[in-house]
Amino acid sequence: MSQRRQAREFALKMLFQIDLGKLDPQAVVAYFLENQDAAEEVKAYAKTITKGVLEEQAFFDALISKKAHHWKLERIATIERNILRMAAYELLRCPEVPKSVVINEAIEIAKKYSQDDAGAFVNGILDQLQQEMGHPAG
Q1: Of 1, 32, 83, 127, which has the fewest Cβ atoms less than 10 A away?
Q2: pTM value?
């Protein structure tokens, strides 16, 4: 597994805990990363994603809600909701990461951590978001 994939999975796990458990973000991040056997680069990128999502969560949620036709944000499974938040963060705030990589990683992580159709759901929303941003799909 690449370091970036590992960092994204760590970020997802932290965001999931914070979202589902309504836990203190700083405590979750500190405890989680302290207990991981991973390179410092992995931990740093996971922390960057987590912090970035949490700082602008309302903004990312509004973008996702706008694209999730017929779905209220609260009805989207916690895993998919946080994968979408992470991908929105990387698409909008990490210009050094190719857009196609962000979307492909989100799809693969959704397939790994959620139901069979989660990858297609995540892809559909992120594709719409990317198109709105003026970036062609792929």
Answers
A1: 1
A2: 0.93
Domains (ranges, CATH) in the chain?
Answer: 3-132 (1.10.940.10)
Cα dihedral 84, 100, 51, 3, rounded to 10, equals 120
Q: Which two tokens stand for residue 22?
A: 């309504």
Residue linked to tokens 């990461």:
97
Length of the chain measured in residues: 138
Per the CB < 8 A criterion, the answer to whether 125 and 103 are in contact is no
Q: Which one, of 103, 55, 46, 114, lies nearest residue 80 by Cα?
A: 114
What is the tens place of the pLDDT at every residue in 100-137? 999 999 999 999 999 889 999 999 999 999 887 765 54
- Integer Cα distance of 106 and 126 in angstroms: 9
DSSP 45-77: HHHHHHHHHHHTHHHHHHHHHHHSTT--GGGS-
- The residues, any chain, with a CB within 8 Å of residue 10's CB and separated by 6 or more, are 32, 33, 36, 38, 42, 43, 46
